[in-house]
């Protein structure tokens, strides 16, 4: 008679614990994939039962015992919830730790990994909310992925740029410019001193500017600025499109024009990202990932997926750049959370650090580092804060903060480059830039009109 799952749970009809998905004395194996989920059980649901349900539904189980379990090595294949801790200060939230046997997953496939881990469980009725906070990817599984093809060290070598963050700008307005005007902005910004310019997430091939026009005029701007400045420069050509065939065609054309980098948006999906990473590796192109769409599932604190986990998957998938937040700026970003994301991008090994949301040790087994990208409402006046929070291995991207300069685009780029270089110099001389940074900028602005403006 009882048909609603919530009611069934309260009445104790369903028992994932009894089905073997709660194993508190389980000894984690080095090869296990581990996941930490923040669970909010429905009122009256036992947290251990809820954790067991997450383990069950994200591995082998369904809502009832099935006869065919007897035909498999189900004890091994069942995921095991092995620990549940109440989260201090929360409203009935718990951290549930779950171990998955390596054999449950196909080699080198983020799509396969995520189909289990974030597959059905997030809509499960016995839970009010569920958030994937962290994962430990064991070396055995990491080694089935190639990771970033270029990484931070090789990118700096190609650019011949060391000891400071890279500087970029996103084209604005995001949509509406013609190819020729767009190319002019690229040229002005690079000539003024930026290393990169960049397409925005939502520019692909629209009636006002088809993609081939954009690529042609952008690369003309890049080449002209390189010739005039003697510096290596680039522009991230967004190859995001409706089909893989279209994306490959756009990437090939970018390569023919001599571009060193292409860009994709997170919304293309994990398999498409891995395909483009494979293409970039074969063609010696840097791959820039814009995380368009991520906040739909990363922003809420009790439901969804932590962006740090997405960053981990993207390092495995093999992108070279990833948007990672700014702390300051127009978009949400808690300093501790951002540190955890940056560590995930660019450390050789990431040790457990609870205050940064890092719940497991994560050795990276030789997978290259990703260059994090800071973007979103930032400008030269925050240079001391950006350097302090984010360090040197980062791309600082000022869209409005370049193209909105009162003296024009080139002046905006000059202001950013001067602000960056004087701040790096001050820091290297031992000046406390966190406190003295504004004075450093004011001093530099005395002889740099664009910065003063
Ligand atoms: C920034 C931006 C970026 C966001 C992405 C924009 O422009 O181009 O897409 O920063 O956010 O469209 O808002 P401004 P995140 O520099 O003019 O603000 O890096 O956090 O993914
Ligand atoms: Mg944008």
From TrEMBL:
Entry function: RuBisCO catalyzes two reactions: the carboxylation of D-ribulose 1,5-bisphosphate, the primary event in carbon dioxide fixation, as well as the oxidative fragmentation of the pentose substrate. Both reactions occur simultaneously and in competition at the same active site.
Domain annotation Ribulose bisphosphate carboxylase large subunit ferrodoxin-like N-terminal: ranges: 21-141
Pfam families documented for this protein: RuBisCO_large, RuBisCO_large_N
Enzyme class at the top of the EC tree: lyase
Site (Transition state stabilizer): 330
A biological process term (GO) from this entry: reductive pentose-phosphate cycle
PTM-bearing positions, type N6-carboxylysine: 198
Domain Ribulose bisphosphate carboxylase large subunit C-terminal: 151-453
Species annotation: Skermanella aerolata
Note: The basic functional RuBisCO is composed of a large chain homodimer in a 'head-to-tail' conformation. In form I RuBisCO this homodimer is arranged in a barrel-like tetramer with the small subunits forming a tetrameric 'cap' on each end of the 'barrel'.
Gene Ontology molecular function: magnesium ion binding; monooxygenase activity; ribulose-bisphosphate carboxylase activity
Descriptive protein name: Ribulose bisphosphate carboxylase large chain
Manner of cofactor binding, per the entry note: Binds 1 Mg(2+) ion per subunit.
Keywords: Calvin cycle, Carbon dioxide fixation, Lyase, Magnesium, Metal-binding, Monooxygenase, Oxidoreductase
Binding sites annotated in the UniProt record for Mg(2+): 198, 200-201
Ribosomal protein found in the keyword field: no
């Amino acid at each position: 008679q009882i048909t609603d799952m919530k009611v069934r749970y309260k009445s104790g009809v369903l028992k994932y614990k009894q089905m073997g998905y709660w194993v508190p004395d389980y000894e984690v194996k080095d090869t296990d994939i581990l996941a930490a989920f923040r669970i909010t059980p429905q009122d009256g649901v036992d947290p251990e039962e809820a954790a067991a349900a997450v383990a069950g539904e994200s591995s082998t189980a369904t809502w009832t015992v099935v006869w065919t379990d007897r035909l498999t090595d189900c004890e091994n294949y069942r995921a095991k919830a092995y620990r549940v801790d109440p989260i201090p200060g929360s409203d009935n939230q718990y951290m549930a730790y779950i171990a998955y046997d390596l054999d449950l997953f196909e080699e080198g496939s983020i799509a396969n990994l995520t189909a289990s881990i974030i597959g059905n469980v997030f809509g499960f009725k016995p839970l009010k909310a569920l958030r994937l906070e962290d994962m430990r990817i064991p070396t055995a599984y990491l080694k089935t992925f190639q990771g970033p093809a270029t990484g931070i060290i090789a990118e700096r070598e190609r650019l011949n740029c060391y000891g400071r963050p890279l500087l970029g700008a996103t084209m604005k307005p995001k949509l509406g410019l013609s190819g020729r005007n767009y190319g002019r902005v690229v040229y002005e910004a690079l000539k003024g001193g930026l290393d990169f310019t960049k397409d925005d997430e939502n520019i692909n091939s629209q009636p006002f500017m088809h993609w081939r026009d954009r690529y042609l005029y952008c690369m003309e701007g890049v080449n002209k600025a390189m010739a005039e400045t003697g510096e290596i420069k680039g522009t991230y050509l967004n190859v995001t499109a409706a089909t893989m065939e279209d994306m490959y065609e756009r990437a090939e054309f970018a390569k023919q024009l001599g571009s060193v980098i292409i860009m994709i948006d997170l919304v293309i999906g994990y398999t498409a990202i891995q395909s483009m990473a494979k293409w970039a590796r074969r063609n010696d192109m840097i791959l820039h990932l814009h995380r368009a769409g991520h906040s739909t599932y990363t922003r809420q604190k009790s439901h969804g997926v932590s962006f740090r986990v997405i960053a981990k998957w993207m390092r495995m998938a093999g992108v070279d750049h990833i948007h990672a937040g700014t702390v300051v700026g127009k978009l949400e970003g808690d300093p501790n959370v951002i540190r955890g994301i940056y560590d995930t991008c660019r450390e050789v090994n990431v040790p457990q650090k609870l205050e940064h949301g890092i719940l497991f040790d994560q050795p990276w087994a030789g997978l290259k580092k990703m260059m994090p990208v800071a973007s979103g409402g930032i400008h030269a006046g925050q240079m001391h804060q950006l350097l302090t929070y984010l360090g040197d291995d980062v791309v600082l991207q000022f869209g409005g903060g370049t193209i909105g300069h009162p003296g024009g685009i080139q002046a905006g780029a000059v202001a950013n480059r001067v602000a960056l270089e004087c701040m790096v110099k001050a820091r290297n001389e031992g000046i406390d830039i966190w406190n003295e940074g504004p004075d450093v900028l004011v001093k530099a602005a005395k002889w740099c009109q664009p910065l003063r403006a």
